[in-house]
Write a structure and sequence with these properties.
Layout: E1 2-4, E2 7-8, E3 39-46, E4 53-61, E5 81-83, E6 107-109, E7 127-135
Antiparallel strand pairs: 1-2, 3-4, 4-7, 5-6
Length: about 140
């Protein structure tokens, strides 16, 4: 059984409909380095004549409020790549086993490639957290 004219089925009961294909080296596109400074202070005080204690914790995340686009793993950054499947008038099909695809001829990135798709693409803004409690 073959999944296409030039690919023998290695034994799939149901062959995948799509597979990933990398047009460039896998590290050709990357986000900037992320820099964030966090600060945490913890305080605990044992109560006399007891094993109990009161505690407090203060956290200040992203102290300098640096914002970077960084979250590629959750699809928060657009990674659209166009091929002849998407725009047959613009791109020529190619055989990935015998041809090296050319950007602009066989493929290109989408108009919004590398842009955020939502707020989750950015580092957390400056955030203050406080917790207090009693351990016994």
């Amino acid at each position: 059984m073959q999944t296409a004219d030039f690919v023998n089925n290695p034994g799939y009961l149901t062959p995948p409909e799509t597979v990933n294909y990398y047009f460039t080296a896998r590290d050709a596109f990357h986000t900037e380095n992320m820099y964030r400074t966090d600060l945490a202070l913890n305080y605990a005080h044992k109560l006399p004549y007891s094993r109990s204690e009161v505690f407090a914790q203060f956290q200040l995340l992203n102290v300098f409020n640096n914002f970077q686009l960084f979250n590629i793993r959750t699809d928060a950054i657009n990674t659209t790549v166009l091929t002849s499947f998407d725009d047959p008038d613009r791109f020529q099909p190619f055989n990935p086993f015998t041809e090296t695809p050319v950007r602009g001829v066989n493929w290109d990135v989408g108009d919004k490639f590398g842009q955020a798709t939502g707020a989750g693409a950015y580092t957390l803004p400056r955030t203050f957290l406080f917790a207090a409690g009693f351990r016994f």
